[in-house]
Task: inverse folding
């Protein structure tokens, strides 16, 4: 089997492209260009065109996720870790629901949780240490997270303004999901929502876990708060200045 079709669980060690390599920065540049290019189109379009753009991104995200199953199931490479229970996978469903319904609370979730989670995955990828640049699962991991960053960015281009009160309404649901995922992880030996471990690679959670062990869980709300303060205070101050 060519290395192009292998997963991080079946590929030989030592073939990874590495984080912050030329290949990694290539994907980050593509993401930035895509946000600016499509964002400007989205901002200048009427609502009918915007809805078509949102639906297109939503369907591309679902198709991207399905490509993982098309690759792993027929080739006997399926792993429980591929179930769509990661935080970013939940965001994939949220994108699809919002594209169909325009639900304001789902929109808040995508901004407050989906955007920073997918962006951190792009900045601290856990798949680059094991997978080469020319690998289907590596490409999939980058493209699906790009789409998950792109969607809420388009909403911002369209005039979305965050509301911390709606965030407070969304958080209990996320907390409940984290508890469910902890139970699932204990049964399947997975690490959905990073509640059973800091993950692979040099991401902030794994670094903290290496120093303080399971207490790294206490750092998750600290990181979330550090993200939310500028995400909510800057638009709030901008709104007050306009008033």
Result:
């Amino acid at each position: 089997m060519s290395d192009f079709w292998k997963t991080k669980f079946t590929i030989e060690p030592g073939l990874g492209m590495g984080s912050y390599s030329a290949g990694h920065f290539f994907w980050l540049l593509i993401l930035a260009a895509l946000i600016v290019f499509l964002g400007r189109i989205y901002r200048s379009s009427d609502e009918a065109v915007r809805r078509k753009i949102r639906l297109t991104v939503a369907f591309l995200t679902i198709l991207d996720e399905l490509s993982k199953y098309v690759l792993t199931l027929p080739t006997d490479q399926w792993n429980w870790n591929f179930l769509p229970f990661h935080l970013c996978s939940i965001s994939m469903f949220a994108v699809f629901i919002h594209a169909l319904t325009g639900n304001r609370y789902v929109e808040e979730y995508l901004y407050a949780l989906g955007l920073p989670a997918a962006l951190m995955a792009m900045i601290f990828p856990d798949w680059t240490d094991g997978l080469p640049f020319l690998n289907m699962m590596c490409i999939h991991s980058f493209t699906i997270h790009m789409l998950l960053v792109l969607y809420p960015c388009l909403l911002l281009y369209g005039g979305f303004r965050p509301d911390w009160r709606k965030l407070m309404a969304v958080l209990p649901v996320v907390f409940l999901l984290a508890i469910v995922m902890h139970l699932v992880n204990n049964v399947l030996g997975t690490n959905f929502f990073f509640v059973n471990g800091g993950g692979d690679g040099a991401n902030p959670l794994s670094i903290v876990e290496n120093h303080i062990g399971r207490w790294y869980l206490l750092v998750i709300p600290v990181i979330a708060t550090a993200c939310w303060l500028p995400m909510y205070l800057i638009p709030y101050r901008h709104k007050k200045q306009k008033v």
